[in-house]
Design goal:
The protein is built from 15 helices and twelve strands. With about 375 residues, it is an alpha/beta fold. The protein has one domain: TIM Barrel (Alpha-Beta Barrel), CATH 3.20.20.70. It has an eight-stranded parallel beta barrel, surrounded by seven helices. It has a two-stranded antiparallel ribbon with strand order 1-12. The chain has a two-stranded antiparallel ribbon with strand order 2-3.
């Protein structure tokens, strides 16, 4: 049955619609992860090991306040759009669609260094909070240029990704032949032909490129490469805590480390003056067999939650997942696939559908839990199996 956006009531519905509309290699790039994809599945299934304990007769009323403040930015809902790469491969509007949808819902939009729309354009387009995700390249001139462009575009926060000093073993990409830009072969051409809407938009609109990297690196824009090979060849594998601290000083504003999974590293993030950490295993796309962010969130917030904003990144599929993470101690949540499926399914209306579904679930579930605002969530409402 051909799915339609109006019938997409959750992330899985949007995932299936995206699968219908994308060529196989493009869909599996979004949907896949590293090796046996154990961590990818665990990122969501971990929430099932925790039960909610609601309170009743709490006099909640008709209005609840789901706003949070993270990295100095007030968000109207406690989940934001995590930075993700290559968005114009999934829909011709790419980051433009996600930016407008995030602004409509008053939440933050994270833009990847591997983004396909310039930081300057995004900066002019929206006034709501914006995060730039930074990959630490071997080319120091490129690194400096990205910082300067993000500053000039009015981005509020910089997040250094720390779990990608080499590429994960993303076997679905190896089987499908996925590269950026897509490499033309008999197999890929057949897949494109079966999805003519996607193909016409890709080949007849503005040429695909990595907007902030194309002037420095040919790979990814003009030379086809896998994401794993890009990380392995272009990023600096000697990146250290001193490099992260120097980048924080250079940036001069709210600074976040994305990819923290241990208490020891969370404490080091505090030591170098970071304002926030994103507890993340990169959506299970790097090291398979790692713990899920939700598995780690309580011990990390117990250790550093009073000193730094702790964000749970990854695995979110339901409003209850957000509320469990916040009750366990997270300041906010973020996710990528939850809106990438929607972008691929229907562009900006799809992303609005995804964020609207989550907002509705969070509002309803807060009332059913007996809380009027996010601050009332606490560990007493959780039981771990």
């Amino acid at each position: 049955m051909f799915r339609r956006l109006k019938n997409c009531h959750n992330v899985e519905d949007l995932r299936l619609l995206a699968k219908q509309r994308l060529p196989g290699p493009i869909f599996h790039y979004i949907d896949g992860a590293a090796e046996d994809e154990v961590s990818y599945r665990r990122n969501t299934s971990a929430f099932n090991d925790c039960d909610l304990v609601p309170n009743v007769l709490a006099g909640v009323g008709e209005e609840v306040d789901m706003s949070v403040t993270v990295m100095g930015q007030k968000l109207d809902m406690p989940i934001f759009c995590s930075p993700t790469a290559l968005q114009r491969l999934f829909h011709h509007d790419g980051e433009r669609a996600v930016a407008r949808a995030a602004e409509k819902f008053g939440t933050m939009f994270g833009v990847s260094a591997l983004g396909t729309v310039s930081l300057a354009e995004i900066g002019e387009m929206i006034s709501t909070p914006k995060l730039f995700q930074f990959y630490f390249h071997k080319d120091r001139g490129l690194n400096d240029a990205m910082v300067q462009r993000a500053q000039a575009a009015g981005f509020n926060t910089l997040a250094l990704t720390v779990d990608t000093i080499t590429g994960g073993n993303r076997e679905r990409d190896l089987y499908s032949g996925f590269t950026s830009p897509p490499r033309l072969s008999l197999k890929s051409l057949m897949s494109f032909a079966l999805h003519p809407g996607w193909a016409l938009n890709y080949f007849l609109r503005d040429a695909f490129e990595l907007a902030e990297l194309k002037d420095f690196v040919k790979q990814g824009s003009n030379v086809a490469i896998t994401i794993g090979d890009y990380f392995a060849t272009q990023l600096d594998q000697s990146m250290s805590w001193s490099d992260a601290e120097a980048l924080r000083v250079q940036w001069g504003g709210p600074f976040c480390l994305k990819g923290i999974m241990s208490v020891a590293d969370a404490r080091k993030a505090v030591d170098i003056g970071a304002d926030a950490i994103m507890v993340s295993n990169h959506g299970g796309r790097q090291l398979d067999g790692t713990r899920s962010p939700f598995d780690q969130i309580a011990e990390i917030t117990d250790a550093v939650g009073d000193d730094i904003d702790v964000i749970l990144d990854g695995g979110i599929r339901r409003g209850t997942h957000v509320l469990k993470a916040l009750a366990a101690g997270a300041k906010a949540c973020s996710g990528g696939r939850m809106y990438l499926y929607a972008l691929a399914a229907a562009g900006q209306p799809g992303v609005e559908r995804a964020l609207g579904n989550l907002k509705t679930e969070i509002e309803r579930d807060m009332k059913l839990l007996g809380v009027r605002n996010i601050a009332q969530l606490n560990r007493d409402m959780l039981r771990f199996r």
